[in-house]
């Protein structure tokens, strides 16, 4: 719970003065509690894009955009990416503490034993067009889970919420891998419960019945790190979407499907696909200045994908870890010299020195490097955002659970600054 600071904020306009309490978070700026503003003063606040608005209380993730800091339940992302595993991070996000060895084993067993999909879901996959974007399939199949798992949709039953949580974390790799298999026209590969979470995912994506496939441990580690780095990110667009959908008491599968849909956009999770496509479009180092000039041109909507972030105005701590991983994976695969990578390295160098990017604090974000790793592992660009969705499912469901258990939670219902026509009378068609 946030602490009441005892300090109040006062807002004066015309003859009216309103006093509002201020709360102190564990970390980050104090918060003015404006909940009674409309009732007491008949005014709204205006904050498109929520740049200054805290929409909820949360104890899960903290970001300090100026310091370039990201904490899951207080633990720095760098330490988790280095020492932990994605499944342990899921436990941490959901339950608030690092698990004991016994708790981790029990949680891993529960996740592992829910990895298969209801067999009838195979038909559901087959209903999609072959050329469907895997993100469209993931969105549809996650939403359809509410039609297959009726026994975990009662949001008022804590046990059902728990089962839905485990099911989502366990089944999302299978859903994403099958979306990929369907997309490329290969047979679905069933999960292997003796494999780790990341290894199993790579196996479901890249193995075929015709020959044995052994997952490289370095790629498994890189995949696991990508999952950890994307697991949660405070009240970003897709997480806020999950919370907003959940605030109407919609079932958890419907809420996570809403999150998947929101993540798809190129300004959010879709940036990893857009970034690699941009690097390929640039093609050669000599064309970079043309693209830098376009990014600066106000009359051109083009933006350098993989650069900039709403919250990080120093550097994206996930990008630092991801860069190390990219070097490791590319070194292992012996592809340090491919043209896309050369363009990426040179673009990064130029953008970090260019006054436009320096002044606006536009640094490479996590998506700049994650696409390079996923490409090297062998994923097509269309799979980048579904992989982000796989990882973010852990954060979405943790935030959803926290919201449902919060007694101050209400249906989300923003107000507006209305600028349409004032009252006018209907005119019949003949008189218009
Ligand atoms: N290339 C060129 N100019 C940019 C870029 C960019 N990538 N990003 C921001 N700017 C400029 C923008 O034109 C504006 O300039 P001015 O002040 O002169 O009008 C200024 O920087 C601030 O931009 P903004 O749009 O007000 O910033 P925002 O906080 O609303 O947007 C963003 C954040 C991530 C949507 C934006 O930086 C962007 O579109 N980046 C490219 C897409 C991308 O890589 N997204 C992935 C984000 S990380 C993954 C995730 O968490 O989802």
Characterise this structure.
The protein has a three-stranded antiparallel beta sheet. A three-stranded antiparallel beta sheet has the order 4-5-6. The longest helix is centred in the middle third of the chain and has 27 residues, at 158-184. Strand 5 and strand 6 (75-76) form a beta hairpin. The protein is built from 18 helices and six strands. By secondary structure, the protein is mainly alpha-helical. The structure holds carboxymethyl coenzyme *A (CMC).
Keywords:
single chain, 432 residues, mainly alpha, 3-stranded antiparallel sheet, 6 strands, 51% helix, globular, binds carboxymethyl coenzyme *A
What class would the helix/strand composition place it in? Answer: mainly alpha
| Topology as a string of helices (H) and strands (E) | EEEHEEEHHHHHHHHHHHHHHHHH
Q: Report the radius of gyration as a whole number of Å.
A: 23 Å
Major β-sheet strand ordering? 1-2-3
Low-confidence stretches: none
Number of strands: 6
Cα end-to-end separation: 58 Å
Largest sheet: 3 strands, antiparallel
Beta-strand level of the residues, as a percent range? 5-15%
Q: What's the mean pLDDT score?
A: 93
Short overview:
This protein is mainly alpha-helical and 432 residues long. It has helices at residues 37-41, 77-83, 86-95, 101-112, 121-126, 134-148, 158-184, 197-206, 217-230, 237-247, 252-263, 271-282, 288-296, 317-333, 339-353, 355-359, 366-377, 384-404; strands at 3-13, 16-24, 31-32, 61-64, 69-72, 75-76.
What is the element layout, followed by pairings?
Elements: E1 3-13, E2 16-24, E3 31-32, H1 37-41, E4 61-64, E5 69-72, E6 75-76, H2 77-83, H3 86-95, H4 101-112, H5 121-126, H6 134-148, H7 158-184, H8 197-206, H9 217-230, H10 237-247, H11 252-263, H12 271-282, H13 288-296, H14 317-333, H15 339-353, H16 355-359, H17 366-377, H18 384-404
Antiparallel strand pairs: 1-2, 2-3, 4-5, 5-6
Helix pairs in contact: 3-18, 6-7, 6-11, 7-8, 7-18, 8-9, 9-14, 9-17, 9-18, 10-11, 10-18, 11-18, 12-15, 12-17, 14-17
Bound molecules: carboxymethyl coenzyme *A (CMC).
């Amino acid at each position: 719970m946030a602490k009441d600071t005892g300090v109040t904020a006062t807002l004066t306009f015309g003859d009216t003065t309103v006093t509002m309490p201020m709360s102190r978070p564990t970390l980050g700026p104090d918060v003015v509690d404006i909940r009674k503003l409309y009732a007491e003063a008949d005014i709204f606040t205006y904050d498109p894009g929520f740049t200054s608005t805290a929409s909820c209380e949360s104890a899960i993730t903290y970001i300090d955009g100026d310091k370039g800091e990201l904490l899951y339940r207080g633990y720095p992302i760098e330490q988790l990416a280095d020492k932990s595993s994605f499944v342990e991070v899921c436990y941490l996000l959901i339950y608030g503490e690092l698990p004991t060895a016994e708790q981790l084993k029990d949680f891993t067993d529960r996740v592992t034993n829910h990895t298969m999909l209801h067999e009838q879901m195979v038909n559901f996959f087959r209903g999609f067009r072959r050329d469907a974007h895997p993100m469209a399939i993931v969105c549809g199949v996650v939403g359809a889970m509410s039609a297959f798992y009726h026994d975990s949709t009662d949001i008022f039953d804590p046990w059902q919420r728990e089962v839905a949580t485990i099911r989502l974390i366990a089944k999302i790799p299978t859903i994403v891998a099958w979306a990929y298999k369907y997309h490329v026209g290969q047979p679905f590969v069933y999960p292997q419960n003796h494999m780790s979470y990341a290894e199993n995912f790579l196996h479901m994506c890249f193995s075929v019945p015709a020959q044995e496939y052994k997952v490289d441990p370095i790629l498994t580690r890189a995949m696991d790190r990508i999952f950890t780095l994307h697991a949660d990110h405070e009240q970003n667009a897709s997480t806020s979407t999950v919370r907003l959908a959940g605030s109407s008491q919609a079932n958890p599968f419907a809420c996570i499907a809403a999150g998947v849909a929101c993540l798809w956009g190129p300004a959010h999770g879709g940036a990893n696909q857009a970034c690699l496509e941009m690097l390929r479009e640039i093609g050669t180092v000599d064309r970079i200045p043309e693209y830098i000039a376009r990014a600066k041109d106000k009359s051109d909507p083009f933006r350098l994908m993989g650069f900039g972030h709403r919250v990080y105005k120093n550097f994206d701590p996930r990008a630092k870890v991801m860069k190390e991983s990219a070097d490791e994976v590319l070194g292992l695969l012996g592809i340090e010299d491919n043209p896309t990578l050369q363009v990426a390295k040179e673009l990064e160098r130029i953008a970090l020195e260019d006054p436009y990017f320096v002044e606006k604090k536009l640094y490479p974000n996590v998506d700049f490097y994650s696409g390079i790793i996923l490409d090297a592992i062998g994923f097509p660009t269309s799979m980048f955002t579904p992989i982000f969705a796989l990882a973010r499912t852990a954060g979405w469901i943790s935030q959803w659970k926290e919201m449902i258990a919060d007694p101050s939670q209400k249906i989300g219902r923003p107000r507006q600054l209305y600028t349409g026509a004032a009252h006018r009378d209907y005119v019949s068609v003949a008189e218009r």
